[in-house]
Amino acid sequence: xxxxxxxxxxxxxxxxxxxxxxxxxxxxxxxxxxxxxxxxxxxxxxxxxxxxxxxxxxxxxxxxxxxxxxxxxxxxxxxxxxxxxxxxxxxxxxxxxxxxxxxxxxxxxxxxxxxxxxxxxxxxxxxxxxxxxxxxxxxxxxxxxxxxxxxxxxxxxxxxxxxxxxxxxxxxxxxxxxxxxxxxxxxxxxxxxxxxxxxxxxxxxxxxxxxxxxxxxxxxxxxxxxxxxxxxxxxxxx
Length: 238
Description:
This protein is of the alpha/beta class. It has one domain: 3-Layer(aba) Sandwich (Rossmann fold), CATH 3.40.50. It is built from six helices and eight strands; from the N terminus they run βββαβααβαββαβα. The protein has an eight-stranded mixed sheet with strand order 1-2-4-3-5-6-7-8, sandwiched between helices. The two termini are 22 Å apart. The model has no long low-confidence stretch (mean pLDDT 97).
């Protein structure tokens, strides 16, 4: 049975409130840093962390916003907060690397065996961790945004896997090709899985509530991408 613990981090005048999902033993285990969607820490990402706990991994669900949002009342505020972070990708990278170092310093985290995964905006964040040249074992993006940060490129040490809905209106096919070219130029060991007739947000059963065209849940893509992630984590954290 997994346990949850709040991990608070002071950053840039904010208190980030991450959630560690762990086995309760206090022992260091291979760990997955989970970066949520635009809505921040939600039961969805905590559920993914619980599933990873069943596979033998601890997880830290990252709070990048210093705030808990509610889909029913805070959607506009959440998108504004995301926009502010995306407007300065260098500052966002610094924030991500600071969260990574917080994770690395936890007793429950095996520092040499960390993977970073993210969803939507969080998928872009996960890719930005890889783009920074950070020393992590692997990075995976689910329906992530692919546009590069416009910063000086670094050699990518992490293995990279991306899970993408081919009909995602936010990431057209040319952006997928561009990501492959970018990762190749950076020397990365990379893979991209594209799912036909699938849009944005396909892992989230509540994606349709966003009311955005092309954003919807897709059970088969969710299942297939999770199976691919399990194999990927077994490779990079094994």
